[in-house]
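so i finally got all the pieces together for this one. its two components total, 452 residues if u count the protein bits. some of the lines might not be protein, just check the labels. i wanna see the whole assembly predicted at once instead of chain by chain like last time, that was a mess tbh
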Amino acid sequence: MKIKVLESILAGNARAAEEVRELLAAERVTALNLISGPGAGKTSLLEQVVPRLQPGLRVGVLEGDIATTRDGERVGKLGVPVVQLLTNGGCHLEAALVARGLAELDLDSLDLVFIENVGNIACPAEFDLGEMAKVGLLSVAEGHDKPAKYPLLFSELSALVLGKMDLLPYTDFDMGAFESDLRALNAAAPVFPLSCRTGDGVGAFVGWIEEMCRPQLAPASAGGTS
Amino acid sequence: MKIKVLESILAGNARAAEEVRELLAAERVTALNLISGPGAGKTSLLEQVVPRLQPGLRVGVLEGDIATTRDGERVGKLGVPVVQLLTNGGCHLEAALVARGLAELDLDSLDLVFIENVGNIACPAEFDLGEMAKVGLLSVAEGHDKPAKYPLLFSELSALVLGKMDLLPYTDFDMGAFESDLRALNAAAPVFPLSCRTGDGVGAFVGWIEEMCRPQLAPASAGGTS
């Protein structure tokens, strides 16, 4: 007799994420899960970052959206392989869809995969995608109170990009209040203030990404892995 | 023998929303469901709108957030009754929580209730709260491509506030592309460009709200409803 098993979404996702993590480790690919609200500038950030990465670092992109392939087309112009993941209404990416996206990339020829999540800071951080790290992006136009109001993302991220710094003079963004709220949730994650319009600050974030990819950039040891 | 019924979240919500709608009709209260991404300026909009409403219009606010009572405290300073609805991680409001919030307000003494949703344009529009209308808020800092990328909200809203217009000169927001994408989804909804920093444009939106409340503002007819 068959027993019907109803698994919670999160439990099923955790299992799929573990498979993604194992695949990425076997293929020596670093994956970064990029999370922000809508219009904070995730795609613009990729447009700035990808051309600045050192030439030896081979990049692919999984582009998550609810609808349209517009962002995938923008990223495709960077000359890197990209797969558009459409959730068709779903408000976050799940690991099973990421696994299908990775299957469309030639992982042998890649060192780094950016996973651009759906524009939402409410629930995507609940869903492990098997990534090495979550990277948060907050635009200063969104206000300094976001860490306290959306605590899960800000506590889980390994790095935070503070974007649209060119707009800072025209906003009421309070840097002290922001850092105080952020550090109450996350003591360690570095913050990278930058502007995708001017390019200011992008280099420091690129340096952090390259550091995350160090194992992939190192020449394979003579004896291989034991 | 009892039959276990597993109802989908959306079906359960639709039933609760119908009860909210009936309650609001019986109490002659207009409810507006305010939806935007995080940091687009929903609370700032209420801070601008509430003091401008005509004195005869009695306002209450249900303030939805994932965490903290910060926005509820801001709205409370306007001198109107406010109930903070905390989803504790949930990425949208549901009608059952709205019903509990309304039970905390003295509806007999109110004409208009703003329901400020969680900062998210991905899924809140899926959840009917029993409101009379959904009002969307998009900040120009978020970019003109949002209607096409988050179509459900933009197709369902009855009015769209285009906020942070003071930032327009410093962004790449393309008004023509925005209107074209919006009108492909929604032919009728009026658009209210405004700035909560300068107050420009707020009056027109206030006029629309008052129009939505006309039945509540009209003196009760001598014979009552037939």
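The interface with chain A takes residues 37-40, 65-68, 70-71, 89-92, 118-123, 126, 139, 141-143, 145-146, 148-152, 164, 166-167, 170-172, 197 of chain B (CB under 8 Å).
The radius of gyration of chain B is 18 Å.
anyway lmk what u think
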